[in-house]
Amino acid sequence: MKPEIAPTAHDPDEGGHFGPYGGRFVPEALVAALDELAAEYDKARNDPDFLAELARLQRDYTGRPSPLTEAPRFGEHAGGARILLKREDLNHTGSHKINNVLGQALLTKRMGKRRVIAETGAGQHGVATATACALMGLECVVYMGEVDTQRQALNVARMRLLGAEVVPVRAGSRTLKDAINEALRDWVTNVDHTHYLLGTVAGPHPFPVMVRDFHRVIGDEARAQVLERVGRLPDAVAACVGGGSNAIGIFHAFLDDTDVRLYGFEAGGEGLDSGRHGATLTTGVPGMLHGARSYLMQDEDGQTIETHSISAGLDYPGVGPEHSWLKDTGRAGYRPVADAEAMDALRLLTRTEGIIPAIESAHALAGALQLGRELGPDGIVLVNVSGRGDKDMETAATWFGLVDDGASGTGDGPANGPRNAEDAR
Amino acid sequence: MTPTTARPEGQVFSLDALFRTCRDEGRAALVGYLPAGFPTVGDSKRMLSAMLDGGCDLVEVGVPYSDPVMDGPTIQAAADEALHAGFRLRDVFSVVESVASAGGRAVVMTYWNPVHRYGVDAFARDLASAGGLGLITPDLIPDEADDWMAASAEHVLDRIFLIAPSSTEERIACTVAASSGFVYATSVMGVTGARDSVGAAAADLVRRARAHTELPIGVGLGVRSAGQAAEIAAFADAVIVGSAFVSRVRDSEQAVHTLATELAEGVRR
């Protein structure tokens, strides 16, 4: 399928606003670069050569289209509803992140910039960026919170093997939000020859619309695949939401299909009452973080609240501005999924279908179980499996007690539970 | 908070009046920055007082913020320390009031989210009540500032927006048109922090800005010595010093006073 990134009725206004959200809350020093990027992107959106090159990479390098897999044994646990999995986990580098990275890397070359910087939490976006930079001969620096470099050590090694410099960030909470801060500081300093390859649908305009467009291929493919497979549209679409890029990517194709309900599942962490979660849309209030106005986890003084999730990729106090707009307009619904619920869904999909999803994606799968039970046996739920779970084996091994330490480790028990898993992080 | 009318003769203390005085004296103004609440709220009041006594014409009272993307390590660490020491946003008004009631001039420098959260109009009202003269907004550009334009007009506060070496002519023109009091020119592309040299980009930026405005132009980022202050004073209307003061706070109140004295001599060379 040819990538479709042309403007739609769901684009933001010229200043990048989705309703009252989005915009640009950035230092003036970055505005010229954002204007340059927006102008270059506007040209690329309608440039047949750019689209052909992107289509070629998606097909020959990423391996698109990604399959649609029906999950009947998993569906038995979802009230008998039909569960259809969009397999972004089968993309090269193991997640949906590569879709956006290839698009922005091509733009970087068009702009004549030679250096790319990126932030990463779980390491998926960092690995995808390092991969594209290796492919295209670009210098690559990845900022990663020190806490995340420790819990995702193998991804750090992958990025370094790919030739990227990985910079551990020791400021603030030493996680994803601080990695973005540090990337922004680098960008302000080196903007003349550096592109900031932001990994989600957050940040200042044009990032939210541009990153969304590079992920639209997920929903465009899935919509056609579902129609072909079952002869009608799904009743509901489920995706996990951290910053929200995979969710926007699959939602977009269905925005005008008003009978299709859209659901984003956020990090419920240890439960909303515990205060240790990342449920930005459920519990946050609008504010500015990392260059855009959106829902935000903040205290009454406007200081950002530190988040918690068993999934590093959902451990983020902000969210993309278009999601805030979809929430306010009611077009999409957002619900929290707790760590334990996500891990149960991860194990269930693994045991029933032989597919190990990323812990991020397991939040969407847990959501699909809820939706399926609400819809019943006639229901059809499309789930975005945004990434594969290989990177999460250490967390899963600890959570389920799979590592031999003298005890039996079948993975069946309530296992070590949240407490020990938390220790491992 | 209760209105205090800390400034009955507001006009005399305005930024306009300050820059008129400096112009008459044939020198640049010295502006010193310190985060409120660093290392504690009480200490920050004493340190700001030392800066004014030593020769700062104006102080920028910073709002410690959890995600300061325009700041280098020195000011990040100070903000962290202030937040850990229990700084609350409302404390900034008591710090400003302590400056104003001693006859000093203060503006507040803040990232936008704390103001947005407090309520833009309420923040402006309480800042004006405390005797503050305006706001410097490092991550608010005029394009997004409609509610601040209204609130600043309502409460008679100055709007100090930033321009950068990367700013186009068009952006400089629209930014200075939205500004009042003075315009903040960042001397280099980068974040706050003392540097050995502030580069030719600053002089060029000031020259470009003057083509669009009569407003005074202050230059900040990287200044730490009397020599640098003198160099900048040769082409700018204000020399802004931040990280160097923050570092001196870690030494002593006397060290802060001494730095202000040295810099004040620099802007008069």
Structure description:
The complex is a heterodimer of chains A (425) and B (269). Chain A is an alpha/beta fold and 425 residues long. Chain A has two domains: 30-40 and 96-206, Rossmann fold (3-Layer(aba) Sandwich); 68-94 and 209-424, 3-Layer(aba) Sandwich (Rossmann fold), CATH 3.40.50. Chain A has helices at 31-45, 48-62, 72-75, 97-110, 124-136, 146-151, 153-161, 176-190, 207-230, 245-251, 280-283, 321-329, 339-353, 359-375, 393-400, 417-424, and strands spanning 17-18, 21-22, 68-70, 82-87, 115-120, 139-145, 165-169, 194-196, 236-240, 261-269, 285-289, 292-296, 332-338, 380-385. The radius of gyration of chain A is 20 Å and the shape is globular. The model of chain A is unreliable at 414-425 (pLDDT under 50). Chain B has 269 residues and is of the alpha/beta class. A nine-stranded parallel beta sheet of chain B has the order 5-4-3-2-1-9-8-7-6. In chain B, helix 2 links the parallel strand 1 and strand 2 (58-62). Chain B is globular. The model of chain B is unreliable at 1-10 (pLDDT under 50). The interface between A and B is large, with 38 and 40 residues.
